[in-house]
Amino acid sequence: MTRRPVDTGDPERLYTVTGGRSRADDDSCDLVTLIVSECEPSPAMQSEHVRILELCRAPTAVVEISAAVRLPVTVVRILLCDLLATGRVTARHPPVARFRGSLPDSDLLKEVLDGLRNL
Amino acid sequence: MDSATSELPGFTPLGRDSANGLKIVIVGGFGVGKTTLVRSVSEIRPLNTEEVMTQAGVGIDETAGVATTKTTTTVAFDFGRISLNDRMVLYLFGAPGQERFWFLWDRLFAGTLGAVVLVDTRRMSDSWYAIDRLEHRGTPFVVAVNRFDDDPSVYSLTEIRQALALDPHVPLVQCDARIRSSGKHVLLSLADHLHALATARETTP
Ligand SMILES: Nc1nc2c(ncn2[C@@H]2O[C@H](COP(=O)(O)OP(=O)(O)OP(=O)(O)O)[C@@H](O)[C@H]2O)c(=O)[nH]1
Ligand SMILES: [Mg+2]
Fold it and tell me: What is the rounded end-to-end Cα distance, in angstroms, of chain B?
């Protein structure tokens, strides 16, 4: 498989998917924030929410959700806002602060080194 | 509808205790081997997605005078994954390094541990901008020279370091992005570099 464009659909569809919002309320979900389902999908839910809840039975990064549901990361963030706000999913945030020039402590980096050595 | 598994062959769920997502960015010019490097070390087949960025700007509209405009840009990127242990999972992002993509980078890749700048010695200038930008941001990085078979040039690492005006402390390694052990070596040199930087900072009074 090679690069294929993500099907972003037409703007109207995106508008419907996200309930009319064009951006997430906050930036709380990083690309590598891991999302975990806290409930089973129900038939009343919109299909994108169902897909996310199915996927996230195992922890799944925001960027993986985006690839799986074929929606841009921005749109996935908006969908996740709803699910997070109602407790249907929880988020495990990255241990690394997002501000510029931050370097995690050496203990964490030692774990990274050890993990890579075992590859 | 397709199920998650049929849409994403090779999609393997993470272990249930996974909690700490980390990221490393692989940046370089077109065709330099970014996706190949991600593929050679990733535990999943590289996945592709995109981010849509909206930038507000001020434009001149001839009828309405000065007006606020919005430009929307879509950038595609691919990524792979390495489970480091039961809790930690490292995501590797391959992304184009050209100047016009950098405003996306700043948002997409904030919080990255560090970066690998992948270089093709036949097109060294393709990496100048990325190196400048990483230095400016203070993001630690290593430079990996991807040796292509049909590359007639035989620059030494010293010559390449000079051509890129690399700081003496920035690690410079050679690789063949197609080979897993070689890709692993590149990631290890970055992790080593990061660990050394963190240790030095912690022991400095
Ligand atoms: N000989 C040789 N070929 C390589 C090497 N690395 C990559 N290639 C080939 O170079 C071509 C481009 O590699 P990609 O991994 O797609 O490069 P990329 O940087 O992801 O390219 P874009 O995403 O299009 O910018 C492919 O045909 C690879 O098989 C290498 O180390 N040696
Ligand atoms: Mg590529």
Answer: 59
With beta carbons under 8 A apart, name residues in chain B contacting A68: 4, 7-8, 11, 47
Pocket flag, ligand 1, residue B148 (CB < 6 Å): yes
Is the minimum CB–CB distance between B85 and chain A shorter than 8 Å?
Answer: yes
- From A36, which residue of chain B is nearest by alpha-carbon distance? B16
Cα(A44) to centroid of ligand 2, in Å? Answer: 39
> Is B57 part of any domain?
no
From the CA of B147, give the closest atom in ligand 1: 31
Q: Is residue B59 part of a domain?
A: no
CATH assignment of A11-117, among 3.90.550, 1.10.10, 1.10.287, 3.40.1130: 1.10.10
Question: What is the total count of domains within chain B?
Answer: 1
Do residues B19 and B87 touch, judged by C-beta distance below 8 A? Answer: yes
Q: What is the pLDDT of residues B10-64, one digit of tens each?
A: 568 999 999 999 999 999 998 999 999 999 999 999 999 988 877 665 555 555 5
Structural domain includes residue B71: no
Instruction: Give the number of the atom of ligand 1 that is nearest the alpha carbon of residue B146.
Output: 31
Give the strand pairing for B47-61 and A89-92.
unpaired
Predicted confidence (pLDDT) per residue in B136-178, tens digit: 888 999 999 998 877 777 789 999 999 999 999 999 999 999 9
pTM for this prediction:
0.87
| Cβ neighbours of residue B4 closer than 8 Å, sequence gap 6 or more | A51, A54, A55, A68, B11
> B177 near B147, Cβ under 8 Å?
no
